[in-house]
Automatic annotation (TrEMBL):
Family membership: Belongs to the precorrin methyltransferase family.
Biological process (GO), any one: methylation
GO molecular function: uroporphyrin-III C-methyltransferase activity
Provenance organism: Shinella pollutisoli
Record's keyword terms, sorted: Methyltransferase, Porphyrin biosynthesis, S-adenosyl-L-methionine, Transferase
Protein name: uroporphyrinogen-III C-methyltransferase
PANTHER family (UniProt xref): S-ADENOSYL-L-METHIONINE-DEPENDENT UROPORPHYRINOGEN III METHYLTRANSFERASE, CHLOROPLASTIC, SIROHEME SYNTHASE-RELATED
EC numbers, comma separated: 2.1.1.107
Enzyme class: transferase
Domain annotation Tetrapyrrole methylase: ranges: 16-226
Keyword match S-adenosyl-L-methionine: yes
Pathway(s) served: Porphyrin-containing compound metabolism; siroheme biosynthesis; precorrin-2 from uroporphyrinogen III: step 1/1
Classification via Pfam families: TP_methylase (PF00590)
Length: 280
């Protein structure tokens, strides 16, 4: 293993690596991410980074929390970006560790632009985004040939915490068979109403995947019209990925994690008898 890591690039002093930690399971870290954890002097990490991933840091590494959680006191994004500059200029080997992928609703682009502005060398290390990996751990594929040839990823709130007003809900409702939403739980009632108004069926399958790919993972299957009420009744809390579409119906067949942890019996392909085809 040491020989493998020795062939990977070094994290040099005065450099910043913007790294995706994946959705939770430390086994989903890339080799570049693990290599960075072995080398970094300072790790500036998000709230969504699993503690098991942080435990892989080299002895003596400083962990700095820079989590941003809705409705709670959080550092300003500009302050986080400038902190990376400050640490790099002090000659530290800096790892900016972000849940999921830094360039998928992770503000990695903003931080990288600040590094460019201040002349700080950096590297981008992609991670498995929760909209792909989190769904896979719930037994829900983002795409399935008999269901969809397109998928839309969107965020459920903007920088002000409101439902993004620049999203064309009507176009997405008409054109995307599967919709995967980040940070959407707070406004799921309004979002569901927007999609139903755009023509989606009230009984269309919906799933919430909370704390994806961790020991605390919870999955709730419901429908578009009942999503808000059922999530509240179940006491679900963020972080969560919300997926809308017929792919949710595949979960009884593909919930491999439930089979491993709960001994759940997997069913035969639930779509086989339905003859579902991509409407496009």
């Amino acid at each position: 293993m040491d020989a493998l890591f020795s062939s990977l690039p070094p994290l040099e002093k005065g450099h910043v690596w913007l790294v995706g930690a994946g959705p939770g399971d430390p086994g989903l870290l890339t080799l570049h991410a693990a290599n960075a954890l072995r080398q970094a002097d300072v790790i500036v990490h998000d709230a969504l980074v699993n503690g098991e991933c942080l435990s892989l840091a080299r002895p003596g590494a400083v962990l700095e929390f820079a989590g941003k959680r809705g409705g709670k006191p959080s550092p300003k994004q500009r302050d986080i970006s400038l902190r990376l500059v400050e640490l790099a200029r002090a000659g530290q080997r800096v790892l900016r560790l972000k849940g999921g992928d830094p360039f998928v609703f992770g503000r990695g682009g903003e931080e990288a632009l600040t590094l460019v502005e201040h002349g700080i060398p950096f590297r981008i290390v992609p991670g498995i985004t929760a909209g792909i990996g989190g769904l896979a751990y719930a037994g829900i594929p983002a795409t399935h040939r008999e269901v969809n040839h397109a998928v839309t990823f969107l965020t459920g709130h903007d920088s002000s915490g409101s439902v993004p007003d620049r999203i064309d809900w009507e176009a997405i409702g008409r054109g995307s068979p599967v919709i995967v939403m980040y940070m959407a739980m707070k406004h799921i009632g309004r979002i569901a109403a927007n999609l139903i108004a755009a023509g989606r069926r009230p009984d269309e399958p919906v799933a919430f995947v909370c704390n994806a790919a961790t020991a605390e993972q919870r999955v709730l299957e419901t429908t578009l019209s009942r999503a808000e009420a059922d999530a509240a009744a179940a006491g679900l809390e963020p972080p969560a990925i919300v997926v809308v579409g017929e792919v949710v119906r595949l979960r009884p067949s593909l919930d491999w994690l439930g089979r491993l942890t709960e001994g759940r019996r997997l069913e035969a392909d639930p779509l086989g008898a339905r003859g579902l085809k991509d409407p496009a």
